[in-house]
Design brief:
28% of the residues lie in helices and 27% in strands. It is an alpha/beta fold and 299 residues long. The protein has a single domain, classed as Spore Coat Polysaccharide Biosynthesis Protein SpsA, Chain A.
């Protein structure tokens, strides 16, 4: 059975200032998602599931249904604030989405096979998809998930802070801990993260998560249980988020499930900020010039 690729594309794009998910960066108006899907198809994935929002559903479907017709099976799910488990409650004044853990949970009724998770606005590299596909097809189990790990220095934006899951691994290359740091920035004296208004230095060699995860459908059971607990504790807050690294950290701590770190030396690029677009566009053109991609991705 071919694995599925779950694309988290429901972000509000507040730092970017618009729908970065469908903003073109390629020479034939391709988006970053297009390159991820192209790499996923080549690696052996059999289905794409997009997590989107109702507000741009029509526009999004029109764009990708046309491009992907006849190339791979496509499905869509919506992430909305009011989509919470029965019997739970939250602050109705909330406008901010619940986060990546909630986004993945939205796909529980349409994924029944091993699957990978990616962000829509991150470029991961050809090698990362082939490595993940091999893991999902040949190695994954309910007792061992996977994650593509990147060097922090290769994932920093020059235009502002980023959020990264900071990882610690053991000698067998399994995750020991993963902590979501929501404000990591390149300063004059080096890379550091800010927490409670305090800056702490962090090495550029540190392994971080870019939300490129490999799971079995068993994950949805963990997600449902943890999200209910999250709402009990944080449901009245307006900005707290249910992050997938936090979910994974709790799974590791509370069960026999391990997470294998699949290393990648790839240079990340993405479009967190509007100013990132120029660099991302140049990076894609360089890959086209090297023959990694054609100048027109879909024909």
């Amino acid at each position: 059975m071919k694995p599925t690729l779950l694309v988290l594309a429901a972000g509000m794009g507040s730092r970017y200032g618009g729908l970065k998910q469908i903003d073109p960066i390629g020479p034939s108006d391709e988006t970053i998602i297009d390159y991820s899907i192209h790499d996923a198809i080549a690696a052996g994935f059999g289905k794409i599931v997009f997590v989107i929002r109702e507000g741009f559903e029509k526009e999004f479907k029109e764009l990708f249904n046309t491009k992907l017709a006849g190339k791979i099976e496509v499905d869509y799910v919506n992430q909305e604030i009011n989509n919470v488990p029965d019997g739970t409650y939250y602050n109705v004044a909330r406008e901010k989405p619940w986060g990546t853990g909630h986004a993945i949970l939205m796909a529980k009724d349409c994924i029944n096979e091993p699957f990978a998770v990616i962000n829509a606005d991150d470029y991961y590299g050809v090698e990362a998809f082939s490595t993940m596909a091999d893991f999902l097809i040949n190695s994954i189990s309910d007792q061992e998930y996977g994650m593509v790990g990147y060097q922090l220095a290769n994932t920093i934006s020059e235009n502002g802070s980023v959020s990264r899951g900071v990882c610690a691994t053991n000698v067998s290359q399994h995750l020991e801990t993963v902590i979501e740091r929501t404000h990591i920035e390149k300063l004059e004296q080096g890379i550091a993260y800010k927490e409670d208004e305090k800056w702490t230095s962090i090495s550029g060699d540190t392994t971080v998560s870019m939300n490129f995860w490999g799971f079995t459908p068993e994950l949805f059971i963990h997600l449902q249980k943890q999200f209910v607990s999250f709402l009990d504790e944080e449901g009245q807050a307006l900005k707290s988020e249910f992050f997938i690294p936090s979910v994974v950290a709790k799974i590791i701590a509370d069960s026999n499930t391990k997470v294998r770190v699949l290393k990648s030396e790839a240079q990340w690029f993405g479009v967190t900020y509007r100013e990132d677009k120029e660099k991302a566009t140049k990076a894609i053109l360089d890959l086209v010039d090297k023959g990694i991609y054609p100048s027109k991705l879909w024909s």
